[in-house]
Amino acid sequence: MSSADQLTNDALGAPLSTKSKVLETGASLAQNFGPVKQICAHLNAFHVYAADPSRCVEANHYCSHLNEDVRQCLIYDSPNPNARIIGVEYMISATLYKTLDADERQLWHSHVFEVKSGMLIMPGPDGLPTGVWEEAETREMEDVVGLYGKTYHFWQVDRGDKLPLGQPQLMMSLTEEGQYPGFKDMVGDRDRRFGVESDVKKEKRGYIAEPEIHPHADSMWKKSSDSRDK
Predict the structure, then answer these.
(1) Contacts (Cβ under 8 Å, ≥6 apart) of 31
(2) 94 has a pLDDT exceeding 50
(3) List of E strands, 77-211
(4) d(CA 74, CA 7)
(5) Residue 218: how many CB atoms within 10 A of its CB?
(6) pTM here?
(7) Integer Cα distance of 95 and 99 in angstroms
(8) Spatial separation of the C-alpha atoms in residues 152 and 86, rounded to whole Å
């Protein structure tokens, strides 16, 4: 891959010009970037398309807290500096989720399987002992396990799109391993790249209580099951 390809990360368009780089550097020194500076967590997991659960993509979430009940995350296709924003996810507490109407609740997914399976990770910083970081990560998972997420992707990188094309796509989460045939390989590849072991995380999170999932959440999987039963 050429340096130009690395700059654009397979997106259509020319590499940054010298002028753009100079302006970018100046702006980064002079401007505040307050909202972005509130990002406090990097979470990595996988999303499936609500319209086509046979398609699954890796999602790097960079999240901030609006308050104790609401988080907002920018989703990138990688953790690299040239990563593309491919979507957004909002996470809310079960208390707020229950206030939504029935139709709205069906757009949201649970995080119980993501947490308990070890699939959801919080990649650690270089140089910090694994045990220390995993303790902090596990504490974070105690909070995430009870949240509901609403996610839309704008850039379908899994089909090779060079630009964000078409309508925004509602995304859901896996709720059990068998829902995606390549689950183990997909997670295993991710684990190798980040230097983690999901099975170890699963064991460490065994004590985390599984909250009751609202029957309106994860609606995509319920609809799929109903259609198979007919």
Answers:
(1) none
(2) yes
(3) 85-92, 109-110, 148-153, 169-172
(4) 20
(5) 21
(6) 0.88
(7) 7
(8) 9
End-to-end CA distance of the chain: 49
Alpha-carbon Rg for the chain, nearest whole angstrom, is 19
What's the whole-number average pLDDT of the chain? Answer: 90
Q: How confident is the model at residue 29 (pLDDT cuts 50, 70, 90)?
A: confident
**CB neighbour list of residue 174: distance below 8 Å, 6 or more residues apart:** 46, 48, 56, 113, 114, 119, 180, 183
- In whole angstroms, what is the distance from residue 97 CA to residue 109 CA? 10
Task: Report the relative pairing of strands 109-110 and 148-153 from DSSP bridges.
Answer: antiparallel
Task: Give the separation between CA 22 and CA 27, rounded to whole angstroms.
Answer: 9
Residue 28, amino acid: S
The per-residue pLDDT for 167 is 98
Which pLDDT belongs to residue 33? 85
pLDDT digits (tens, 9 = 90+) for 160-178: 999 999 999 999 999 998 8
Q: Do 112 and 210 touch, CB atoms closer than 8 A? A: yes
When pLDDT is averaged across residues 85-105 and rounded to a whole number, the result is 98
Amino acid identity, residue 34? G
Tell me the residue type at 198: S
C-alpha angle 49/52/54, rounded to 5°?
95
What confidence score (pLDDT) does residue 17 get?
A: 81
CB-CB contact of 169 with 44 (8 Å): no
Parallel/antiparallel/unpaired status of strands 52-67 and 70-76 = antiparallel
**Which residues are within 8 A (CB) of 162 and not within 5 positions of it... i.e. 6 or more apart?**
10, 11, 12
